[in-house]
Amino acid sequence: MKETRHTGDFYIRSKGRRIVIIGNGISGITCARHIRKRDSEAHITIISGETEHFFSRTALMYVYMGHMKHEHTKPYEDWFWEKNRLQLVHDWVTSIDFEQKQLQLQQQEPLQYEILILALGSKPNMFGWPGQELQGVQGLYSYQDVQRMNENTASCQRAVVVGGGLIGVEMAEMLLSRKIPVTFLVREERFWQGVLPKEESELGMRHMREHHVDLRLQTELQEILADDSGRVRAVVTRAGEEIPCQFVGLAVGVKPNIDLVRNTELEVNMGILVDQHFATNLPNVFAIGDCAEYRVPLPNRKSVEQVWYTGRMHGETLAHNLTREPVHYNPGPWFNSAKFFDIEYQTYGMVPNEWEEPVQSFYWEHASGKIAFRAVFNGKDKRLHGVNSFGMRLRHEFFDQALKENRTVEEVLVKLQEALFDPEFYEQHNHEMLQAYNRQFNTSLQPEKKKKKGLLAVLGL
Ligand SMILES: Cc1cc2nc3c(=O)[nH]c(=O)nc-3n(C[C@H](O)[C@H](O)[C@H](O)COP(=O)(O)OP(=O)(O)OC[C@H]3O[C@@H](n4cnc5c(N)ncnc54)[C@H](O)[C@@H]3O)c2cc1C
């Protein structure tokens, strides 16, 4: 059943309707909370097979490392859901009948919906390596993966992590926290080559090596070998090297988790295809978060965005659209943050791994090799394109505004004091950073003193 697509057709108001959300991650939960804030009459049900309650996926590693208990990763108390009349169903949806508007569940009775929100998340990539199904071989995505990792590494002498991105680094850090030596196989010439410029990539690699990660570049996994009991005993690389290990972490990216809706009337590509309102090709069926793919990506954005804050913004936007006059998704400048062991990494706007004239770059790195800042800008008018930072905490609002207002790199650098959380950091490093810029670009920039708030401003007048 294909229908002509008019935005109006895709929206009935949430009021009093039976809304079912599949997925209790950041996108599904944000959407549910925001619908409830604006609409006390909607019947909202959230289904997840993974856990009964919403938890922070980004904190999974800290549970394995013993820094947090699972309870501490739950942003809301368990009573929150009932109090806000958000019905939770802990079960797997096994199929969807879009014609009848009905969901089949693995354990419980079928559920009817009037509005269906698919917030199915991602799943780890597996590239069909021989031995990838062996015991002791796994990816890292879910609550169950962390439990499995606990079991799989209980008597592990050596581990191999495969993949050149952030989840690979997290896995290495997790394993090292239990004193398990890690060999990290990276297919490319350098770490996270597709994303980070050379200097940042080298900073990350140096830091991993300092933490005793045995980093092997340009090394590809060929196959995983089993012992007599069906457990992993070694990996073999493309070059034929056999590396003994009792655990293999596969961290080669994620893809939208859309098996549930494949071969149905719902249009999918890499993910579930949506317009700027998160509407799919079927009336009153929406998709948000990691599983959604924009039919037309926004300028300078990918068609699938698999990060926490975009999931939250998707949820907020869809909730708005179901309760108010629909608006287009408008996430503003790109932003992401992560950690390389103890070094914080942030990126704002567009910082490609390589660039050509007229684009220019300013890179400053502290002598310690653990603090760095890069600004990428248009060489003609100096308009800022984006920044990367390592080992410092930048204020999101500052760079969001700077990028939205098309400020120049120089306007940003002289005001950097406003962007830094840590005043000591500013005292110590900002002068050095500006001097480096002045030398490279033959300027004489001086830091602007932070404006003291006048009495009227303090009083909010
Ligand atoms: C280890 C790790 C670390 C990360 N760190 C960062 C970070 O530092 N910063 C950042 O921005 N992002 C990070 N991410 C990515 C971020 O966590 C995701 O982008 C985000 O959680 C996606 O949210 P979501 O709501 O789309 O889906 P999810 O959080 O994946 O939620 C989807 C839910 O739907 C459930 N579900 C799916 N299918 C069914 C079904 N058929 N029946 C019932 N339930 C179903 C799933 O089990 C899951 O619980 C990290 C991800 C991982 C795995």
TrEMBL record:
* Annotated Pfam families: Pyr_redox_2 (PF07992)
Please list the residue ranges annotated as the FAD/NAD(P)-binding domain.
18-304
The record ties this protein, via InterPro entries, to: FAD-bd_OxRdtase, FAD/NAD-bd_sf, FAD/NAD-binding_dom
Q: Which domain of life is it from?
A: Bacteria
**Which UniProt keywords are listed?**
FAD, Flavoprotein
Q: Which SUPFAM superfamilies match?
A: FAD/NAD(P)-binding domain
Q: Required co-factor?
A: FAD
Q: State one molecular function term (GO).
A: oxidoreductase activity
- PANTHER family, per this entry? NITRITE REDUCTASE [NAD(P)H], PYRIDINE NUCLEOTIDE-DISULFIDE OXIDOREDUCTASE DOMAIN-CONTAINING
Tell me its family. Belongs to the FAD-dependent oxidoreductase family.
The entry's protein name is: NAD(P)/FAD-dependent oxidoreductase
Provide the taxonomic classification. Answer: Bacteria, Pseudomonadati, Bacteroidota, Cytophagia, Cytophagales
